[in-house]
Amino acid sequence: MHDDFLDRLAAGDPSTLARCISLMERGGAAADLVHRRICPRVGRAAVIGFTGAPGAGKSTLIDAYIAALRGRGASVAVAAVDPSSPISGGAVLGDRMRMRRHAEDPGVFIRSVASHGHLGGLSESMHRIVDAMDAAGRDFIIIETVGAGQSEVEVVEIADICVVVNAPNMGDDVQAMKAGILEIADVLVVNKADRDGAAATVREVAAVLARTAAGRNWTAPVLQTVATTGVGISAVVDAIATHHETLAATGDLELRRRLRMAAEIEAIAVGMLRRRVRNTSGEKSLDALAAAVLAGRLDPEAAARRLVGEG
Amino acid sequence: MHDDFLDRLAAGDPSTLARCISLMERGGAAADLVHRRICPRVGRAAVIGFTGAPGAGKSTLIDAYIAALRGRGASVAVAAVDPSSPISGGAVLGDRMRMRRHAEDPGVFIRSVASHGHLGGLSESMHRIVDAMDAAGRDFIIIETVGAGQSEVEVVEIADICVVVNAPNMGDDVQAMKAGILEIADVLVVNKADRDGAAATVREVAAVLARTAAGRNWTAPVLQTVATTGVGISAVVDAIATHHETLAATGDLELRRRLRMAAEIEAIAVGMLRRRVRNTSGEKSLDALAAAVLAGRLDPEAAARRLVGEG
Question: Which of residues 270-309 of B touch A (CB under 8 A)?
Answer without folding.
Answer: 270-274, 277-278, 286-287, 289-291, 293-294, 296, 299-305, 307-308
